[in-house]
Amino acid sequence: MASPAQEINLTASTQYAAYDHSKAIRDCISMATVRAPIYEPQSRSAVDIVAVIDRSGSMAGVKLNLVRKTLLFVIDQLKPCDRLCLVLYDDNVVVEFPLTLMTKENKELTKAKVEKISDRGATNLCGGLLKGMEQIIVRSSGQKAKVASVLLFTDGLANRGITGFTQIIDAMRDPIGSLAKPGVLDNARPTHAPFPFMQMQQQIPMQQAMQQVSAQPPMQMQQSPAPPLPPPPMQQAAPPLQLNQFPMQQSIPQPLSESLAIAPSGTVDFEGTVYTFGFGSDHNADLLTAISNAANGVYYFIDSTEKIAECFADCLGGLLSVVGQNMTLTIEAQPKCTIGAVHYKNKPQIEPDNKKCVVSLGDLQSEEERDIVVPINLEAMEAECMSQALIKVTLSYFNVITTLMQTTSVDLTVDRKSAAGLQPNEAVTVQLQRVRVALAMEEARKIAPVDLRRAKSMLEAAKKSLEESGVVQHKLCQVSTPSHPQPLLH
Q: Is 348 helix (H, G, I), strand (E, B) or coil?
């Protein structure tokens, strides 16, 4: 039995403490919150990382040089129990070597291979990505680490194989099946043989499934010449609103359930994560963001050597401090209630009768917190009620600390009586406004090429709604310019 200090905390709340019983309520805003505990063991478990490198002609010069430096930095951060695989792509896709233990000798050979990477040909981005995901999928159960990730290094300028935005996300749902289709990997060369001594290398027994994570800042765990990094930043909710980044819907006065969902095509059922790293001022940030969102990762932009340490303190710090894996949030509406449109980066699955919604949350790091806004529609009641049941929220996940599957639930209720004079819950209001603004920004981005005036009007209205909400001064609602773009829906 896990102690409270080892469990992910699940809570639920409503925007107002009471709602009028005499009329139906459209979009009673509620919020489910998951919080990971602080976890600081003495050592960490192994990780499996597949680095997928774009070496096409568009990466020539500064871009590819920065990729090499970034990859060399990553190699220095890995421990002997970690495994690395290197996939290169241009017109062709090549697995330079399979997942291999990063012993001192193997690190040196890996670095030598990285230094020799040169630009050539066109860009089969999707083929390289799928081949990288395949390396995670085909791992033998006796060797694979509990934490696994694909790191995609590219400018995102795909021009071979599958190049369409939606088609790439669809292909990610079945990497192995997609690779077998004509036109996806037709020009791929055979996989190279592993390093000579890798074939004789004894596998280091894997530690118990994710039972320990480093007490040191993740980037200080190696014994390498790389400089130490500060601890990865705590991931609180999400980055601040960025209203000034796009050419500016109506104040979004319409119910949230009628707003446009901005999540990618849907959740990719993949046992690892995909982190994307954009290089060059001309890189395709929208595509790289969509790819990382679809596989529960994060997109980063690296434009200088100084950014390498910053980005990987966050990326590897997240990979090495996972507390909960494969988290699934199930929301069930109670009698006289239905669920509205739930927005999350992985598209929630809502049943046709709007009585049940399932959201895939991916992995959760130490001290990380996430908020999921849930609109609920309430029927009118004949008399006042002091505690109407709204929803049952259930979180199921693999607990890395205890190495057990766990489930926790919470029931959300609300008073149905006069709601006059009640003040809104600030935390719920902040997240509601973030979702509304994000929806407006995404819709404006779509229509701007054909109707710039309408797009600007939409964003100005969203900004006005935020200013009138009473939370515009909250730190999460401040206008800012981030070091690298991040999706507003976390």
A: coil
Q: What pTM was computed for the model?
A: 0.55
Kindly report the number of other CB atoms within 10 A of residue 199's CB atom: 8
User: What DSSP state is assigned to residue 334?
Assistant: P
The span from the CA of 350 to the CA of 329, in Å, is 12
Q: Cα–Cα distances in Å, from 173 out to 134, 177, 266, 346?
A: 11, 9, 9, 13
Spatial CB neighbours of 169, under 8 Å, sequence gap ≥ 6: 264, 265, 266, 268, 290, 291, 294
With a CB cutoff of 8 Å and minimum separation 6, the contacts of 159 are 122, 123
Rounded to an integer, what distance in angstroms lies between the CA atom of residue 332 and that of residue 413?
A: 13
Instruction: List the alpha helices (DSSP H) in 301-391.
Output: 305-320
What distances in angstroms separate CA 393 from CA 131, 324, 372, one per listed residue? 37, 17, 11
Res. 248: pLDDT tops 90: no
Task: State the Cα–Cα distance between residues 93 and 78, nearest whole angstrom.
Answer: 25
Q: Are the beta carbons of 46 and 388 closer than 8 angstroms?
A: no
Q: Helical H runs in 84-143?
A: 104-115, 125-137
| Tokens at 399, concatenated | 């607990």
CA-to-CA dists, residue 273 to 47, 70, 136, 369, angstroms: 12, 19, 10, 18
CA distance 308 to 290: 21
Which tens digits make up the pLDDT trace of 91-137?
999 999 999 999 999 999 999 999 999 999 999 999 999 999 999 99
Q: Tokens 């509620």 label which residue?
A: 30
Task: Give residue-wise pLDDT tens across range 158-168.
Answer: 999 998 888 99
> Taking Cα atoms as reference points, which of 100, 89, 90, 93 lies closest to residue 50?
100
> What is the distance of C-alpha 157 from the center of its chain?
21
User: Who contacts 476 (Cβ-Cβ below 8 Å, separation ≥6)?
Assistant: 237, 238, 240, 241, 430, 434
CB atoms within 10 A of CB 4: 7
